[in-house]
Amino acid sequence: MKYIVNGTVFMPDGEIRGRALAFENGTIKGLVSDAPEGAEIIDAAGGIVSPGLIDVHIHGFMGWDASNGRLGELREMSRQMVRWGTTAWLPTTMTLEWPTLERCFSAVREAMADSLEPGWRGAQVMGCHAEGPFISARKRGAQNGDCIQKPDVQKLLLWTDVVRLMTVAPEAEGALAFIRAATAMGVAVSMGHTDATAAQAQAGIEAGVSHATHTFNAMAPLNHREPGAVGAALCDDRVYCELIADTFHVAPLLFGLMARQKRARLVLITDSIQVAHLPDGPHDQSGQTVIVDGIRCHFPDGTIAGSSLTMDQAVRNFRAHTDIPLYETVNMASLYPARSVGIDDAKGSLEPGKDADIVIADRDFNVKATFIRGEMAFRA
Fold this sequence. Notes:
Elements: E1 2-5, E2 8-11, E3 14-16, E4 20-24, E5 27-32, E6 40-43, E7 48-51, E8 53-58, E9 60-61, E10 64-65, H1 71-81, E11 86-93, H2 98-114, E12 124-125, E13 128-131, E14 163-168, H3 175-184, E15 188-191, H4 198-207, E16 211-212, H5 228-235, E17 240-244, H6 253-262, E18 266-269, E19 281-285, E20 288-293, E21 296-298, E22 304-307, H7 311-320, H8 326-332, H9 335-340, E23 358-361, E24 367-372, E25 375-379
Parallel strand pairs: 1-6, 2-7, 8-11, 11-12, 11-13, 13-14, 14-15, 15-16, 16-17, 17-18
Antiparallel strand pairs: 1-4, 2-3, 4-5, 7-23, 9-10, 19-20, 20-21, 21-22, 23-24, 24-25
Helix pairs in contact: 4-5
């Protein structure tokens, strides 16, 4: 048995001090008053003991990309992201030709199996987030418009064990039937890259949409007479709303509003892309020029191309611009993402019986150590 002592433990409903977190064989055992004499002790040094963070929308970084369909790149991203406290993730594909997407899904399937092995030493791959190709050409954003297709559930049949989340425009021809079929097969459907009216978005929610992709972005603007997909997502308690908390995809003024409106349905994401964390300047990304400018990634015409955000920075940014307690902000980066894609039976909190995916951080949530199923994967 291992014990983490001298830390403030973040549980779903609050912060607990003066207790030790016990875990064994990769599983959380619970909180105890004192670690027994002679036990293996890990000192949190007065910092925070939190669940591992979960990123359900991340394409790539440092030149790697889930859309390249290479197992080696998924492995390297998994190994690197533990530095930022991420212990589980959904490699996220772009809108590509279907055969290319199938190659990506195949690599993710391999990574899902390999990341359960002791030698993986990185964040666990929990499946794939397919951002397209069944989206709106009008709101394609950084997606390749030439690869947009009509929803076709037959294409999904071989990949329901891999695709855990899929972004779909609910107004697309055939989308409602697709949403009903996909959700019946266990795939969570997110509405995004959509020009849907509020009525069309609500029809999508009735059909099974339970998620909104990078809320506000690649959607018609919220209007008091036509609220669109944004209004439908914010006002329906069945829908989890993603937020890229990098301070420029969404103005920080709205962070608190989203938290008050969505509560336990707000999900922090990075939407990090292949060129993130590369030097400032122009870079090639799948044949497109993307400019890295500090924390921003954009096309030459100024269109936002994605983010260079990390999950720990998302937590810090959100906390800096709201009065939401830090433990609840961490829930938005751990428990609520886990619930949104159906993995909260094993991930997302430090409750007994769950995987010992643990982050030790200082009081400002700078990551000091990360554990994957009870094994240390990173130490600052």
